[in-house]
Design goal:
The chain is mainly β and 275 residues long. The protein has helices spanning 21-27, 32-39, 174-179, 191-194, and strands spanning 2-4, 13-14, 19-20, 49-51, 57-68, 76-84, 92-93, 103-107, 111-118, 126-129, 150-156, 162-168, 184-189, 204-212, 233-236, 239-240, 252-257. The strands form 5 sheets. The chain has a 5-stranded mixed sheet. Strands 6-5-9-11 form a 4-stranded mixed sheet, with no helix packed on it. Strands 16-15-14-17 form a 4-stranded mixed sheet, with no helix packed on it. It is globular, with a radius of gyration of 20 Å. It starts with a strand and ends in an 18-residue tail after the last strand.
Amino acid sequence: MPLEFTVPERDDADPSAGLSRRELLRVGSVGAAGLLLNKLPSTRPFKQVFESSLAPIVIDLTAEAGTMQILPGPKTDVLRFVGQAPKSPGALQHLPNSNLGPVIRVRRGQQFNVRFRNKLMEPSIVHWHGLSAPERMDGHPRDAIETNHTYNYSFPIFNRAGTYWYHPHPDMRTGKQVYSGLAGMLIVTDEEEDRLALPRGEQDFPLILQDRQFDPKNQLSYEMDPNGYLGDTILVNGRPDYVLEAATRIYRLRLLNGSNSRVYKVAWSHGEQLT
């Protein structure tokens, strides 16, 4: 069936203009030419129709504040994505004992429908890092929504099989919101990957690497730094001293650097080759 993307529904949007009322007031002095440019379609190459027989994926995704037992002692205040997909079994993989968002699994050709609700005390929006998405579906900072507002995403997945991720993208708040826990892996599969002899199921394992710094009360310490902020504690899937219980077989480890600035060199401690 043909899959088409739709413009997001916003609580404060004027559907005839393509701009929120706040944005309209902000750019009102630009004049007719400026407003006309804002209504033109994006120049990024993007197919608007994609033939597919796959059922659409439907997800409710909420950004909210909470607490998590990360280190021994007091719990840590965190931000987190909470996801539900009752109409799309298998679309979400929840990481145990983690404040990170669920792993989202989609197939190339699926219509991707997400209803994002912001329950934070500040603006936020979700960016689908690496996905080919229409402009208004990409999570641009200008589309950030206020507390208790929603933003609806709907677009087809054109990307090849691969490991992607999602994270907030509000102006001047992205770094701290990601640092506080708003991040999750997004995995795309397709027929090309199906033909490869790659480990699947429980042998296809996501590993999200992050560095964090905690104060004496186990609270996250973060300061904006133009050179990048580095932590002194490495978390894997949101946990310190992470251990993956594995059998004697081949695993596919999907490594995602979800840190704000740190670069990693990954290797076996005993020095053997890592394939």
